[in-house]
């Protein structure tokens, strides 16, 4: 099993959860999806996230899906599992289950019920008690949670959380926050942790890498975009990183539309052969004929631009 620690970098792809056309969990398609991601060079997988329809799964389905992903990955990359929950009994139970199945660590976001800095910090003190020595990722995603975490409170959490090894930075706008947290680590004000970014399929990825991010933890139907952009940036070819990113940006932007984004991603992954069905569990969107025409046009233009870039 790969370690999940503060040295994490690259692309931890947020995966979808495949279902059959009838809505059942599709474990055979899960294998296809894992293979698809690993073949495109991701350095980790993150499952049961917001775009993974985690809230639509039963507890047993969540465990079965985790087991399948871990077994298929066979130790080639770390597997991080979302275990966010307002209640600590459920969080602790799921964490113990997925770690026993071979997960590398877990990811936790604050519940919408915490608002002040003291409430947020107190919540994560209880997260530490619940998770014990399990390595975990702090997810800062105010668009989804409604919780605004300032740099000061994030640094406070990191100082109080010896087993928090990563910040998943998803605030928007958030470049100044990323810079402040990285600077604090560089100055020794707090231990350095991995920072992976998740903003809308990586919509600010090149800029975030320039601000000190170690990579990306998000989803997109073309995971190779993030892999290639991160690699080019790490290799010092920042202009190449921006050129590649720009080629994918129109489709990445389209995939981030509120309401239909997950359906777009699953449709594209189905088209690419990564999953057998584009089914989204209820409540979920359906794509119109106009949506599909838009997507086809964007894919054609993306292919053309990538060919031009070589």
Give me some keywords for this one:
globular; single chain; 11% strand; TIM Barrel; 310 residues; 8-stranded parallel β-barrel; alpha/beta; 8 strands
Structure report:
Helices cover 49% and strands 11% of the residues. It is of the alpha/beta class and 310 residues long. It has one domain: Alpha-Beta Barrel (TIM Barrel). α1 links the parallel β1 and β2. α1 packs across α2 and α10 packs antiparallel against α12. The mean pLDDT is 96. This is Dihydrodipicolinate synthase family protein.
Low-confidence stretches are none
The tally of strands reads: 8
How many individual helices?
Answer: 12
For the terminal residues, how far apart are their CA atoms? Answer: 36 Å
Estimate the strand proportion. Answer: 5-15%
Q: At the third CATH level, what is the topology name?
A: TIM Barrel
Shape estimate:
globular
What's the structural domain tally? 1
Q: Could you describe the largest sheet, including whether it forms a barrel?
A: 8 strands, parallel, barrel
Going by CATH, the homologous superfamily would be: Aldolase class I
The CATH architecture designation is Alpha-Beta Barrel
User: Which structural category do the helix and sheet elements fall into?
Assistant: alpha/beta
If you compute it from the alpha carbons, what radius of gyration comes out, rounded to the nearest whole angstrom?
Answer: 19 Å
Task: Give the helices and strands, then pairings.
Layout: E1 10-14, H1 27-39, E2 44-47, H2 59-73, E3 79-82, H3 88-101, E4 105-108, H4 117-131, E5 136-140, H5 142-145, H6 151-160, E6 164-169, H7 175-186, E7 194-197, H8 205-210, E8 215-216, H9 223-234, H10 238-255, H11 261-271, H12 289-309
Parallel strand pairs: 1-2, 1-8, 2-3, 3-4, 4-5, 5-6, 6-7, 7-8
């Amino acid at each position: 099993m790969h370690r999940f620690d503060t040295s994490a970098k690259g692309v931890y792809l947020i995966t979808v959860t495949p279902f059959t056309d009838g809505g059942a969990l599709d474990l055979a398609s899960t294998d296809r999806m894992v293979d698809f991601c690993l073949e495109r060079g991701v350095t980790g997988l993150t499952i049961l996230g917001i775009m993974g329809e985690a809230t639509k799964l039963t507890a047993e389905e969540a465990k079965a899906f985790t087991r399948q992903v871990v077994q298929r990955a066979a130790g080639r990359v770390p597997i991080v599992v979302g275990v966010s929950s307002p209640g600590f009994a459920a969080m602790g139970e799921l964490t113990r289950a997925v770690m026993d199945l071979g997960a590398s660590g877990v990811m936790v976001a604050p519940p919408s019920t915490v608002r002040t800095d003291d409430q947020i910090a107190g919540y994560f003190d209880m997260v530490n008690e619940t998770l014990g020595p399990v390595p975990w990722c702090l997810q800062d995603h105010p668009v989804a949670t409604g919780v605004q975490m300032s740099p000061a409170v994030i640094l406070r959490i990191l100082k109080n959380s010896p087993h928090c090894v990563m910040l998943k930075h998803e605030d928007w706008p958030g470049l100044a926050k990323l810079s402040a947290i990285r600077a604090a680590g560089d100055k020794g004000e707090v231990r350095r942790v991995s920072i992976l970014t998740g903003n809308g399929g990586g919509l600010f990825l090149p800029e975030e890498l320039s601000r000190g991010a170690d990579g990306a933890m998000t989803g997109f139907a073309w995971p190779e975009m993030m892999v290639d952009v991160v690699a080019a940036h790490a290799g010092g070819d920042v202009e190449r990183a921006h050129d590649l990113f720009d080629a994918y940006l129109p489709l990445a932007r389209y995939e981030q539309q509120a309401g239909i984004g997950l359906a777009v991603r699953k449709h594209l992954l189905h088209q690419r052969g990564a999953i057998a069905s584009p089914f989204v569990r209820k409540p979920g969107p359906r794509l119109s004929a106009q949506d599909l025409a838009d997507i086809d046009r964007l894919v054609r233009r993306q292919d053309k631009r990538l060919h031009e870039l070589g």
